[in-house]
Amino acid sequence: MKICAIICEFNPFHNGHAYLIEQVRATGRFDGILCVMSGHFTQRGDRAVLDKFTRARHAVLGGADCVVELPAPFATSPAPVFAEGAIKLALSVPEVCAVAFGCEDMLDFKAVAGAALEENGQFRQEIARRLADGESYAQSYSLALQKICGANVNSPNNILALEYAKAVLKYRPEVELFPVKRAGAGYNDRALGGTYASASAIREHMGEAHIADYVPPFVAAELREDEAADTRWEAIVKYALAQTSAEQLAQVYGGGEGLANKLKSLQRLKLCDIIAQATSRRYPSSRIRRALTQNALKLTAEHIQKFLEGAGYIKPLAVKADKADEMLKALSASPYPVVITGSDVERLDGLNAQLYEASRFADDVWCAAAGRDVYDCTIVKC
């Protein structure tokens, strides 16, 4: 069986995501499509607009064969950790032979990744120079890479694509990369128009009827603006910030370099104002949201790094009914334990158990904000 993996968030699943899956399926080269999807929180530091089981079901209805969860510690981390955690999990399944992803530019991502991994003296000097000028590390890194290699990775999907390629080279270099040029709106584009809109634009316009033009009907039927959940999530984030010292906050990814002190000085403001006033060239808003979210989820960079180095499990969320036996058999060949039932959870130990509990706590927090429970689902068959 040949499986193509897609790293995703589907927050929510939209026409562009369906297009990506269609492009993979149209090759006729793969027997299955496996999605590794963020659970209840995302790499931008956002609370997912729909629960993970619903989003996984949407993915299967939209063409995927199976969706497994990317544990919360990786899902809420900066691009290198997010990508490595997801790729490591996907490539633990022996029958995964390719990784597909959307990108803004069709580059030879393996070649660029190889150059980035070398990080020669000129490359490091260029990063140091830009950091000294007040740029963020992510911006300094991408601009240095553009100058040294001539590759434009200064866009969200290209940045993630590069990190996927670096992780593939680290774990299974023979695995194929399958880039698909992004159709329609850009990653951060807030405007609606044409056939494809970004997930950011869809989230921003969820209360409007014409949002149905940009998502499949089965998604449109379940998308609802939830101001009460947004209010509860803000309260959770602000309470966690108030309860955390600057020293503790500095332990989350991105909390260093003075950001922790800055956030503590703003903690009495509204969440949107905290993010707006803390944002700068050195502190992008995505870094601020991730730091606040990881603080609320009690995740530290030290613990996440330990998980990245030595932990993993496979939690299937949804599977296509007529592919269930094939896909679950493929997953069971991974060295990571497959977690579906309560007894599977009980057999987890060590770092695997800690990683699962960290994700379960993230589920608890999401449910507290959403005002409902979603634990009655073990695996959805569509």
**In CATH, what is the homologous superfamily of the largest domain?**
HUPs
CATH topology of the largest domain: Rossmann fold
Number of strands: 7
CATH C-level class of the largest domain = Alpha Beta
Low-confidence segments = none
Major sheet: arrangement of strands: 5-4-1-2-3-6-7
CA(first)-CA(last) distance:
21 Å
Rg of Cα set:
20 Å
Which range best describes the helical content: under 10%, 10-25%, 25-40%, 40-55%, 55-70% or over 70%? 40-55%
What's the helix count?
A: 19
> Which CATH architecture of the largest domain?
3-Layer(aba) Sandwich
Number of domains: 2
Largest sheet: 7 strands, mixed
Averaged pLDDT, please? 91
One letter per element, helices H and strands E, the order comes to EHEHEHHEHHHHEHHHHHHHHEHHHE
Please report which band the strand proportion falls in: under 5%, 5-15%, 15-25%, 25-35%, 35-45% or over 45%.
5-15%
Category from helices, strands and their pairing: alpha/beta
The global form is: globular
Structure commentary:
This protein is α/β, with parallel strands linked by helices and 382 residues long. The protein has two domains: 3-105 and 155-224 and 303-381, 3-Layer(aba) Sandwich (Rossmann fold), CATH 3.40.50.620; 227-301, no CATH class. Helix content is 51%, strand content 10%. It has a seven-stranded mixed beta sheet, sandwiched between helices. α5 (109-118) packs across α8 (156-171) and α11 crosses α19 (350-370). The mean pLDDT is 91.
Short overview:
With 382 residues, the chain is α/β, with parallel strands linked by helices. Helix content is 51%, strand content 10%. The protein folds into two domains: 3-105 and 155-224 and 303-381, Rossmann fold (3-Layer(aba) Sandwich), CATH 3.40.50.620; 227-301, no CATH class.
